[in-house]
């Protein structure tokens, strides 16, 4: 058979086979221009529409998944430096430790900043007197409070120092778990404190003090916040321990010649530890992650150090390391638990290095501690950004802040542009949980997914009325309907449940008109309720999708838009050609849709009526005389007549 007579299907299959190796190309182009996640579906959809082979489509699907993973990793790296700045500065202070008081003050300041409390303070135990005393405070205004001494078991701090366990209270004076004394209560009352969180400073199994965070109002401290303060306490204990080592080294310099070797050895230990911490601090300040920390420690210890998930590490050795706070040998490896507040976050594993001196063991332990702080700070920073986005949207919905300049500045810090055209979307889960806890968990998953979507789309998200509300910019070429549908699909996929989304009409100039956001939200909610009543749960839509019913759903009653969508092509045709199709339509409906009666009304031949109606059908579609369409067209004709005098 000649080449000219090869079947087209065979040529297509050959072309597909030849192009399998180029499946990555469209996704590399998407990565290069920073396209949105939705855009990565287009190459696959295009291949299916073109009837490409199964092998080609499978190759594109695999390349798409790989590209999305690369995209996610790149976005995470871009955010990392900003999210972890406070943590990195603290680690750097510890690595370059010269003044214990300055380092402890920095730790207290950053603990207060990250937890967002009114005050933070640190107390140290006095073994000689058997009590604990205030060492550093941040945000305190009462002199008596700054000079407090707490006996073991007295007050919340005394109980933490005695039991080596964290304690928290959302209302100190109403909490009878603590031994209240006149002096302690007077100091706390002078400071005006209500909610207090205290965690122990531990060196091995010994408590050397307590780190506190407190508010002058009732507040519930979350588990992650307790864990984060616990990690700062570990950092403070390490700073105290390192300072004690420095003190011992300096004191040893005055000993006899017999002690010179010990002094030199200890100085070498301190210098090596300082070098390790300088490396770690420099790494994280450059935006490194947990795997970069492992690589840096591998170089220092002249071995292979890996970060692994908790489930991939030897369970028994990992638990011993977590409980004792030290790296543990396991066969020829060393295991350092990456933990915070009792929560296992992973492990640092030193491979094939059975002989490890105490200095290198402590280096591995410090690296595990820095790794845990990196993970916790990343989590805390992400949650803080979500809260800030929600607060700005809450203010827009409640029209609290009417200064456009301040609103724009707040939005700009979140990479949002209030001068762009936006759509307000009301989203709700379509699942009935077995109990209140499961329902609350489902709503939290929806809130988390919505917050992530808002961050990636440079929008805002908040919880409201048992659901979630989003404010997303409208991209060029999109409509409120397409945005609502894509949002419903995205959120539904993220939470593995059906999510219904109702959208407002596009809104503009949000900074100058914050009340427009509240009105648009009400329109989106009405659209959401209408969808659920019409059995369209799990989908997305805007008021424009409901025909004349949309006039009732829309907050601004977009009559001109309804008329344009319904009979706009007929109006435009009359204006261009000088015809009178609108008048013919009016007469046709007035005469009960009878061409014979219409020709009498218009004083024309029946064929003329037929030709005009045929032209109308080509402009409006074949179904224009159906009951639903006919009702909308009649309403649009009447609204057009009512608005015509005002337009002239």
Can I get a quick summary?
The chain has 648 residues and is of the alpha+beta class.
Relative helix content: 55-70%
Spatial arrangement of strands, main beta sheet: 3-2-1-6-5-4
Ranges where pLDDT stays below 50 over 5 or more residues in a row are: 1-20, 548-556
The profile of the biggest β sheet is:
6 strands, antiparallel
Shape: elongated
Radius of gyration over alpha carbons? Answer: 34 Å
Report strand %. 5-15%
> Got a strand count?
15
Describe the model.
The chain is α+β, with helices and mostly antiparallel strands and 648 residues long. The chain has helices at residues 8-19, 25-33, 42-49, 54-83, 85-95, 100-115, 143-146, 155-163, 182-191, 223-252, 260-285, 290-301, 315-324, 358-398, 404-413, 436-456, 480-495, 515-533, 549-553, 559-577, 581-590, 595-602, 606-620, 627-647; strands spanning 119-126, 131-138, 149-151, 167-169, 195-203, 206-215, 304-308, 328-330, 333-340, 343-351, 422-429, 460-464, 467-473, 499-503, 540-542. The strands form 3 sheets. The protein has a 6-stranded antiparallel β-sheet. The chain has a 5-stranded mixed β-sheet with strand order 12-13-11-14-15. A 4-stranded antiparallel β-sheet has the order 7-10-9-8. A hairpin with a 2-residue loop joins strand 12 and strand 13 (467-473). Helix 3 (42-49) packs antiparallel against helix 4 and helix 22 packs across helix 23 (606-620). 38% of the residues are buried. Residues 1-20 and 548-556 have low confidence and may be disordered.
